[in-house]
Amino acid sequence: MQRHALRVLIAANLGSHARRPSCDDAGVSLLLDRLLVLLRPCALLLLGVVFACTAGESRSSGPEAGETSSGPVAAAEEPTPVEEPVADRGVEGGVVADSPGAAAAEEVVEEVEPELPPPVATYMGREIAQTMHWRGADWLLRETREDEEHVTQLLDNLGLEEGMAVCDLGCGNGYHALRIARRIGPEGTVYGVDVQPQMLSMLRRRAEREGLDNIERIVGTVADPRLEPDTCDLVLLVDVYHELSYPEQMLASIRASLRPGGRVALVEFRAEDPDVPIKPLHKMSKAQIRREWEANGFEILSEFDELPWQHLVFLGKKGDR
C-alpha cells in the first residue's frame, strides 16, 4: 500500500513535467521501484519519530514518578529479613507503635537526640564489649540456659511482686521479660528496652503467642533507655551492662527512672572464675562493678552468690535509704 501511494505521488509529479522521449511505462516503473528502495529508510525513520512523540505524550499524561494508580509509592526501605518482616519503630519517647503510620509519626513527635561525645572504648580500665547482634538471638533461647544460669533461681531472688513496674534493660527477644510478666501479673508492667528493633519484634510475637499484654516495648538508644523518671521499682540488666558504650549516660538515666526505694539487679558473668566458659571481655568482677557504679551515684545493697556462673548484685541510689 505504501509503495502504491508513493508511485502515485511520484507519477503525478512526473506528469507535471515533460516526459523524456526515452522513458516508457516500463522505465517509469523501474524508476519508481528504485526510488522506493531509496526512500523506504527515510519513511521508517519518520514513522519512528512520530511513534516516539506519541508515546511520550501518553506517558506524560499518566501517574507522576513515584506514584501508582493507588497513590504514592512508599520510600524504599532497607531489606528486612524473612523472619523479621516488620521492624518496630520508637514513637513518643521510644515506646513502640505498631500502626502503619508509625514511621511517619515518629518524625513528628520524637525529640531530636542531643549531641553525644564519641562512645568510649574503655571505662575505668575495662574494655567495652560489642553488643550482640539480633541475628544471634537464638542463642538467648538455647535449651541449656536454665541449667547453665539457673534462671528460675535468679527470678525467685529478684523480689518480684504482683503489680510491680520492672524494666528489662537489654531485653533482647524476651527470655526474661516474658517470665517476669507472668510473675507480676496483669496489674504489673514490664518495660522491655532494647536498641535493636528486630529484637523487640521477636519479643512482641512471643508475647502475643503467650497472651501477655503487660509488656511495653521501648526502642532505646546507646546512651538513653528512654524510661520516664520515677517509673521503675526494679531495673534488671542481665549480661548487658558490660556492652554499654555510654556507661555514665546510661547510669544517670537508670538512676532517674527509679522510684523511691527502687533497685537495680545487675547480672554479669564472673570474671574472678576462670572456669566460667565465657570470653573475658564479657565478664565483670565485683570490684569493677563497685568501682563503676559507686562513681555514678549508686551503692551496693546486697549480693546473691548462688548462681553457677554469674554475679547478682543489687544496687540503689545513694542516700535513698
Task: Summarize the topology.
Elements: H1 2-15, H2 25-60, E1 67-68, E2 71-72, E3 89-91, E4 95-97, H3 102-109, E5 122-123, E6 126-127, H4 145-149, H5 151-156, E7 165-169, H6 175-184, E8 189-194, H7 197-210, E9 215-219, E10 232-238, H8 247-257, E11 258-270, E12 283-284, H9 286-294, E13 298-304, E14 310-317
Parallel strand pairs: 7-8, 7-10, 8-9, 10-11, 11-12
Antiparallel strand pairs: 1-2, 3-4, 5-6, 11-14, 13-14
What does this structure look like?
This protein has a domain at 122-317: 3-Layer(aba) Sandwich (Rossmann fold), CATH 3.40.50. It has nine helices and 14 strands. It has helices spanning 2-15, 25-60, 102-109, 145-149, 151-156, 175-184, 197-210, 247-257, 286-294; strands at residues 67-68, 71-72, 89-91, 95-97, 122-123, 126-127, 165-169, 189-194, 215-219, 232-238, 258-270, 283-284, 298-304, 310-317. The strands form four sheets. Strands 7, 8, 9, 10, 11, 12, 13 and 14 form an eight-stranded mixed beta sheet that branches. Strands 1-2 form a two-stranded antiparallel sheet. It is globular. The relative contact order is 0.10. The model is unreliable at 1-26 and 49-111 (pLDDT under 50).
